[in-house]
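Following up on my earlier thread - several people asked me to post the actual chain instead of describing it. Fair enough. Here it is, all 180 residues.
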Amino acid sequence: MNHYETVFILTPVLSDDQMKEAVEKFKGVLTADGATIVNEEQWGLRKLAYPIQKKTTGFYTLIEFDGEPTLIKKLETAFRRDERIIRFLTFRLDKYAAEYAAKRRSLRAAKAAAPKEEPKAAPTEEEAVEAPAAVEEAPVVEEAVEAPAVEEPAAVEAPAVEEPAAEAEANVEPQETKED
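Reply from S.P.:
Thanks for posting it. Predicted structure:
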C-alpha cells in the first residue's frame, strides 16, 4: 500500500451540510475500495489564486489515506463526475513527505489538545491589596552607556574653481524639432 494525499476544492455555493455530504461521499469511495483514511482536514472557504468556472472562492479539503494504486483512478473518476468539485489533486507521498505529514499532524493534535488560556480578569481592590507580590514585574532593561564623543578632523574645503561648462552652455543654440 502507498501513502496518498488528495486535496479537492468544492464549489462555494454549497451549504455546510452539502459540503460535508460531498466529503463523506469521497471518503466512502476510498473506504469501499479498501483504503484506510489517515487524516482529514477541512481548510474551509478560501480564495482561489485565479477564477475557476467564474468562481473566486471554494471549500478546500485534504484527505490523507493509504491505498492501492488502482484506487486512484476510481477516486479521480468520481471527482470528474461530480459537478460540485472545481479542482482536485492526488499524489503519492514519498518517505520524506510522509514524515512531514506525520509531523504536521502531531503538531496540529498538540495544538488542539493544549488548553487555551482564558484572559485573566482584573483583580479587585481587595485582592490587589492582599497580594502585592502577585503583580508581575517588568524586566529590567539596562541603560546603554554612551561612549565619549570622538572629535573628527574638520573637513578642508577646496578652493572654488571656475567651470568652463557654464560658458559652453551659454553658446549652445536650441535644436529645432519637427512638428507634423
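The chain is about 35% helix and 25% strand. That should answer part of your original question.
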